[in-house]
Amino acid sequence: MTVSAVEATNFAKSPVVNGTLQVEDAPVVDGVPMIRQNMPTVTITDPLPDDRRAREALYYQRGWWREETFLDDLRRQSRMRPHKPAVAARRLREARTDTLDYVELHRLTDRFAGGLVELGVQPGDFVAVQLPNRWEMVPLLYACIRVGAVICPIGPTTPEDALRHRLTLTEARVLITISEWEEAPLAKSAVKLREELDSLHHVAVIDGRAPEGAIDFRDHFVDRLWEGVHNEELDSRELKPDDPFVVLFTSGTTGESKGVLHSQNTIHSAIRGYVDTFLLDEHLVAAVTTPLVHYSGFAQGVLASVMLGGTIAFQDHRKNEALLDLVQKYGATLLYGPPPTLTDIAQSQRAEPRDVSTLRHVVTGSAQVLQPLVDDLRETLGARTYSLWGMSENGPVTITRLDYNQDWAAHSNGRPIDAMEIRIDKCLNPTERAPVGRLRVRGASQALGYFKRDAEYQEKMLDDQWFDTGDVARDDGRGGIRILCRASDAIKRDGMVVPMAEIESVINRHDKVAEATLVGPSGRVEDPILAVVVPRGDVHPSLEEIREHLREADTDERFLPDRLEVMDELPKTLTGKVRKATLRQLFGEG
């Protein structure tokens, strides 16, 4: 199965005169954005115009979209900074770190692209990559751009049924996986699927012995000098900025996982907003805790770092207390991770202090940030904490800013990056704005759609291209938002939406709680509030202990849990989100 590339269109340099875009031929000069010749002349306005074509013209005018690609970024860095470290990939159990400088990364990209051609990969084909955080993921990402393929990143803990669904939907021609992971025989499972799926022609295996019917990755991709063999063919294949580039599968909290399809430009605009917010440049050394197969890892981590000429450091196993070794060794300037990971890191620094004086930014998302975490990170790491919010459908949309006070991450998810717009609607009436309600977004970072699920994607779109995020948010008073909960999980008290995410974060800090979530047992807004906790140790807290803990954190009495249930572990999606629908099935009231 192939995806048709966006029809090629001539581009010209387009200077701006008196705030208006002038579409005319001009010589190419670095740093000046590109604009399609058949797009309208557009005056810069704020907010952006509703007309889609006018907005897209502005995306090019402002540099959010561009004619260059991420592969062009890599080539530029290999010329400008050939021997600067691009990747530091720590293998914890082998007690070693694999490193690549920019010349090596560029060379391996061409080599891997040649290896894909040898396997029959055609422009528009999907290449599935099921890996933990290993160095091979990085050149494979760029090799897919070079060969004209759409990369489909998949986590190594993905169950076989979910893997089958993703391979079947995309009709991936090649699957690159690892021999085994956490005692799961991934290579053997992949070979079994290859025999079952007509579209899956090859399985390549990294590490260990490749089973019968699979290709040894090192033998085919690493040890054979494919670079230069297919150059002429590859030059005509490379993905263009608006072509389908990557498909990211959603967490599947409300049903079957959907494949979010992005172009390089929709990803670039989000990355551009991210790095501009923090004034990042070639001095960036990013220590990333999230998987490279997820948006935050491959986009805000790999692609952003290479775009700037920085360095990205990561490790393959989840051992949060070891992350500061990477920070110290490579002089990390930015640390990215979810709040629970950052809590572990702060505790580790207290127990075993490392030199983290190079850190400037600690960036977090996926869960609410509370004041104690901001205080802990400032005290232990000497760095300021920033909060962001985003989705697979659009990347980082809102971020707290450098000009805010240092504690604002504990009160807000920030205001939108320049490439995106946000609004809060009344939950049952999208034509009316509200201080608390349904969060909708639109802009240059919005995905192309759901692969083979166009109707589902369009259901989330209003006529003027506002995307329904499915989240309930409130206005933070500074042009930004604070996420309260998923709309499907909302509970109200006296007409007020219970701030589920904030309360969950508070409960998670109870010394008898390892993890906690809130849910309405029947999914109705008038539901009682059920707290489901995983105890830390053998003794679990009582309901009254939880309620008293929340009172001490100044939680509104109306929002205290009415009921408590205890589990050994919470049911979760592949990306670590709690499956609240499963909890409602377990603890529902009739």
Describe this structure in words.
- The chain is α/β, with parallel strands linked by helices and 590 residues long.
- It has 3 domains: 11-63, no CATH class; 72-472, Rossmann fold (3-Layer(aba) Sandwich), CATH 3.40.50.12780; 488-587, 2-Layer Sandwich (GMP Synthetase, Chain A, domain 3), CATH 3.30.300.30.
- It has a 9-stranded mixed β-sheet with strand order 6-5-15-14-16-17-18-19-20, with helices on both faces. Strands 8-7-9-10-11 form a 5-stranded parallel β-sheet, with helices on both faces. A 5-stranded antiparallel β-sheet has the order 22-21-23-25-26.
- The chain starts with 10 loop residues before the first strand and ends with a helix.
- It is globular, with a radius of gyration of 24 Å.
- Helix 2 packs across helix 3.
- Helix content is 29%, strand content 25%.
- A hairpin with a 5-residue loop joins strand 25 and strand 26.
- The longest helix is centred in the first third of the chain and has 17 residues, at 102-118.
CATH architecture descriptor name of the largest domain: 3-Layer(aba) Sandwich
Indicate how many domains the architecture comprises: 3
What CATH calls the topology of the largest domain is Rossmann fold
| Category by helix and strand content | alpha/beta
Largest sheet: 9 strands, mixed
Mean pLDDT: 88
The helix count comes to 17
- List the uncertain runs: 4-37
Which superfamily, in CATH terms, is the homologous superfamily of the largest domain?
A: ANL, N-terminal domain
- What share of the residues lie within helices? 25-40%
Overall form: globular
Strand content: 15-25%
Biggest sheet strand order reads 6-5-15-14-16-17-18-19-20
Q: What is the CATH domain class of the largest domain?
A: Alpha Beta
What's the total number of strands? 31
The Cα radius of gyration reads 24 Å
Rounded to the nearest angstrom, the distance between the terminal CA atoms is 45 Å
